[in-house]
Amino acid sequence: MTIKLYNTKTRSKEVFTPIDPNNVRMYVCGPTVYERAHLGNARPVLVFDMLYRLLRHEYGADHVKYVRNFTDVDDRINATALARKEAGASGTLEELIKARSDETIEWYHDDMDALGAMRPDEEPRATAYIGAMIAMIEDLIAKGHAYAAEGHVLFKVRSYKDYGKLSGRSVDDMIAGARVEVAPYKEDPMDFVLWKPSSDDLPGWESPWGRGRPGWHIECSAMAYELLGDSFDIHGGGNDLTFPHHENEIAQSKCAGHGFANVWMHNEMLQVEGKKMSKSLGNFFTVRDLLDQGVPGEVIRFVMLSTHYRKPMDWTEKKREEAEKTLGDWVKATDGVVPSLPDKGVVAALSDDLNTAGAITRLHELSKSEDKASLKASIHFLGIDIDKFAKEQSILSSIEEGLKTAPIVEALEIELRKARLEKNFARADEIRDGFKNAGLAITYDSDGGITFKREANFDPTKLEALK
Ligand SMILES: Nc1ncnc2c1ncn2[C@@H]1O[C@H](COP(=O)(O)OP(=O)(O)OP(=O)(O)O)[C@@H](O)[C@H]1O
Ligand SMILES: [Zn+2]
């Protein structure tokens, strides 16, 4: 089936034609591994996981190469390691830095696995490609696109005439709008760092410009070149990276004489009250927070895929509830069914610039049809393991059943029902809030029943005060 993708570079939806008709190559900017991933960070993971699945379906599983890097050169990783060292942790600073990256990568894998995201074919760490970065920087200097000054190497932005094409801005507009750093060693404030010196106590590598470390942008250009070659098909990431990160990647790679990426894809942001969820704004919660609250990974995935990747979205409690209900319905509809092949309508929706919302609409139709085998295969195609979800839910409900028979919970539940019958809402609310405080969320069902949901912080002793 023809796949169409929106290309940021041309600002249009284009028919996707891989450079090598039989093999697709894709690079996605991965995380800086200094902290747990927040829910926003999961969005590109799920979007490009969906694309990866679609491409594998279309071209064959062995004919798609997906690379997503780990940025493990970063001051925030160093800061944590330093703080640990000062607090008495054993090991050298270098070992503590490595340990911090390792642990963050492990969390990342655990969290993204829980969302049903497939691991990319290659997950290069920047620290393993320093040699390739140095070689590329030397080449850029030799070609007149970069210069060394005071232990730094800078890229000459004005030496690349197409700078700004991806984001559609002129260099002068960018200077006016961006937080460009003015520094004495820069020929032009717009020039960005390819290499910078490291102090003795920080990680550094020997280079022709002294002991130092790479800038962030050169990492992706060098790793993409090493693992995907001179040119490749798709480059992805969040749209917060379009400028300056991707603009800089293009400038570096093109000036080094590489073909680089054909199609540029950017996911919109996960927002909180109209603002990007981000670590710097502090308006975030992690994927792990949600999982620990008992929100299944399948539900998180479903909610994220319900909005098209080029639209901003929020995480809301209502969306979570609806997703949980839908998946519950699909569990019933597909119980014991052997999956067949994904439905053509679902594949067609995804082939139209990853219209995941359209695919889900089609799944709702299928769930009402007789073809439950195709429904199940299509749910799996979206990366949702409905059997795993069903199993987790049944384990959870048996825990909840058990909980209800604990004497204090039971007694309070009876009192809550009574208070509601008697319209003693003050007492009912008091009990409900007390349950919530003890880590037992309750919802009132339309038929008058009460559903309990146990949170990770459940502590029945807190209920004593309610008696
Ligand atoms: N709110 C968001 N919604 C969608 N994607 C996001 C969001 N925040 C970051 N991303 C994406 O997550 C990926 C990893 O980015 P990176 O590691 O640079 O994030 P970060 O620096 O930890 O996050 P932040 O932007 O919160 O400081 C990138 O592709 C980035 O575009
Ligand atoms: Zn990148």
UniProtKB/TrEMBL annotation:
ATP binds at residue 279. It comes from the Bacteria. InterPro entries: Cys-tRNA-ligase (IPR015803), Cys-tRNA-synt_Ia_DALR (IPR015273), Cys-tRNA/MSH_ligase (IPR024909), Rossmann-like_a/b/a_fold (IPR014729), tRNA-synt_1_cat_dom (IPR032678), tRNAsynth_Ia_anticodon-bd (IPR009080). Binds 1 zinc ion per subunit. It holds the Pfam family DALR_2. Its cofactor is Zn(2+). Its EC number is 6.1.1.16. Keywords: Aminoacyl-tRNA synthetase, ATP-binding, Cytoplasm, Ligase, Metal-binding, Nucleotide-binding, Protein biosynthesis, Zinc. One of its GO terms (molecular function) is zinc ion binding. GO terms for cellular component: cytosol. It catalyses: tRNA(Cys) + L-cysteine + ATP = L-cysteinyl-tRNA(Cys) + AMP + diphosphate. Zn(2+) binds at residues 29, 220, 245, 249. A motif ('KMSKS' region) lies at residues 276-280. One of its GO terms (biological process) is cysteinyl-tRNA aminoacylation. Residues 345-390 form the Cysteinyl-tRNA synthetase class Ia DALR domain. It is an enzyme of class 6 (ligase). Belongs to the class-I aminoacyl-tRNA synthetase family. PANTHER family: CYSTEINE--TRNA LIGASE, CYTOPLASMIC, CYSTEINYL-TRNA SYNTHETASE. Monomer. This is Cysteine--tRNA ligase. It comes from Litoreibacter janthinus. The gene is cysS.
